[in-house]
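Predict the holo structure. Ligand: S-adenosylmethionine.
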Amino acid sequence: MQSPSRQIQSSQRGVHSGLPALIRRHQQHAWQKPVQEVDLPALEHLDSALESHRGAVVLDSFCGTGQSTALLCQRYPDALVIGVDKSSHRLSRRPALPENGVLLQAHCEAVWRHLVERETQLSAHTILYPNPWPKPGHLGRRVHGHPAFPLLLALGGALELRSNWQLYVEEFGVALSLLGYPSRVATVPSEEEPLTLFEEKYRQSGHALWSLTARIGSPARTQITQDHA
Ligand SMILES: C[S@@+](CC[C@H](N)C(=O)[O-])C[C@H]1O[C@@H](n2cnc3c(N)ncnc32)[C@H](O)[C@@H]1O
């Protein structure tokens, strides 16, 4: 067994008090970072994969080595399954993928924006063990605190987030509820085959693993209400 992984340490005790204002700001001001040159080859690869496929699309954001992408290819044999990670090191350890799978080295945020611009809707979207950014000052680096979060939601689909930090998952759920999307939080059943290398490592280290699921369609309401603000 590899050396045990440490539990997440954070001075943050509950959902970040700055979350509603941040979500509101990102809802009102679109993310405008120009496309980075480093992402261009992946976006071109994405275009050609989408052009030769007319069916459902599944996205595996922050896919690491792509182990989960390979499992999703089996789970959704008729879908195009796209794994995205920015790390060439992680992706160099990629497994062989079935024909319906594609791995892209890119920033997920750039891929979300590109898919939104192409008006692509996802059937399913997994976000498995994103970097937790546990310092309170790093709220803006968490997926739900990032200015590209509205793009992720615009892609729709059955969303699953997993983390070994319960507060991250709960905070993500609060971010969704501020935008009118209900979600459900549960522990990941320990008898399930690990979906990813990090999941396997955390499980071997005895961590509780948390899952949030949500169906991202039309929100019940789109404006943040005063009681949340
Ligand atoms: C903790 S690892 C989890 C990887 C994989 N999902 C797993 O569970 O084994 C987080 C991954 O997110 C990737 N990452 C972090 N920020 C990213 C970004 N903005 N776009 C794409 N990948 C990113 C890292 O390269 C890393 O592989």
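The chain is about 30% helix and 15% strand. The CA atoms of residues 193 and 200 lie 9 Å apart.
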